[in-house]
Design brief:
Elements lengths: L6 E8 L7 H18 L4 E8 L13 H6 L10 H8 L7 E6 L5 H16 L4 E7 L5 E2 L13 E2 L8 H12 L3 H24 L4 E2 L27 E6 L4 E7 L1 H13 L4 E4 L7 E8 L2 E8 L14 E5 L2 E5 L4 E4 L1
Parallel strand pairs: 1-2, 2-3, 3-4, 4-7
Antiparallel strand pairs: 5-6, 8-9, 10-11, 11-12, 12-15, 13-14
Helix pairs in contact: 6-7
């Protein structure tokens, strides 16, 4: 290794992926924590990531957290809110608080607010890490191509139940490789991941894992878009050699270039702040790099936008520059 591996997550995700009782999981976490710190003093150990998708979709405050967790997604039903709080009761055996961001980008703000509330109520503060992300799926954890089926996937904001049939037609086009739908989705994927990284930075998250290197092929036609947009979330196009199981990069998708552009523009930032505005749907962030500001901004409609829909637009002024914002983030340099 050219540099040491410092961050370790013990487990995968505190959901159906870790179905054991919380007492058993904590025994494993404690043992791993002690062994890792004995081997390497600067190691950072995190608990299995908390799955928070859809918990905060109705923006509950502290008084509504218990009910929000109770009503959340089925994949986390293996563990109760009480189990999650039991993990957070043990800051002596983890160095960073860890969660997954698998929904729309703005869930990161609510998740961070909730985690900081939980930690403050226990008298401690930990580094925050997002160890896995995915593209905002619209529909996930179940098939998305038949809006009339008895068993369907779960609707994820900004989509609503009323959008199911429109979304089904959208995914049908993706599965048959409709070029217009594919082009729209590749741009959506790029924008979505940039938003997640920018929001995580502003919220003080130390590390965020960006997804994915390549598409999730089984979740396209075979599983009827069962992971929603995530199946088309790859940064690179690859060719698989079944014999050697090697993956060869054959092309690059827009999200690769979007992440490259993001890193180029905010690398080395020393401060980041969201600019508050009276304009609903405006998201504008000021990064300080070498004492100079760089802005990232976009406009987010509250309604689901699909291929063929009009592009939401709003005029906004940053540093005296008039800019037309759309859902695609733009970088503004003075």
């Amino acid at each position: 290794l050219k540099s040491p591996v410092r961050y370790y997550e013990v487990g995968v995700e505190f959901s159906s992926y870790e179905p054991e009782p919380v007492s058993e999981y904590l025994a494993v976490l404690e043992r791993a924590y002690k062994a890792a710190h004995a081997a390497y003093a600067d190691v950072k150990i995190g608990h299995a990531a908390l799955l928070l998708t859809a918990v905060f979709k109705d923006n509950p405050g502290p008084g509504g957290y218990a009910a929000a967790f109770q009503n959340a997604l089925k994949p986390m039903k293996d563990h109760s809110y009480s189990d999650i709080k039991t993990i957070l009761d043990r800051p002596d055996i983890f160095d960073f608080a860890n969660f997954h961001a698998l929904s729309e980008p703005y869930e990161i703000e609510d998740a961070v607010q909730w985690l900081r509330h939980e930690m403050k109520s226990r008298g401690y503060s930990k580094t925050l890490v997002i160890s896995d992300t995915a593209i905002t799926p619209f529909i996930a954890w179940g098939q998305a191509t038949d809006c009339k089926a008895a068993v369907k996937g779960l609707v994820i904001p900004p989509a609503t139940e009323n959008d199911r049939c429109r979304i089904a037609e959208y995914f049908k086009k993706l599965i048959v490789k409709d070029q217009a739908a594919l082009d729209w989705t590749r741009e959506y994927v790029a924008s979505d991941m940039v938003k997640k990284v920018v929001i995580a930075a502003e919220q003080g998250v130390e590390l965020i894992d960006t997804s994915f290197m390549e598409d999730l092929e089984p979740f396209k036609a075979l599983l009827k878009a069962g992971a929603g947009n995530s199946a088309w979330g790859g940064m690179v196009q690859t060719k698989l050699d079944l014999l050697s199981q090697s993956h060869t990069v054959t092309g690059y998708f827009p999200s690769f270039y979007a992440m490259k552009e993001l890193v180029k523009n905010i690398k080395g930032y020393t401060a980041v702040e969201r600019l508050r505005t009276d304009e609903n749907g405006i998201y504008a962030y000021e990064f300080t790099i070498g004492g100079e500001p760089v802005w990232v901004a976009w406009y987010e409609s509250s309604k689901l936008v699909l291929p063929g829909d009009p592009t939401p637009k709003k005029q906004f002024s940053i540093a005296g520059k008039e800019t037309i914002l759309t859902p695609k983030p733009v970088f503004i340099i003075r």
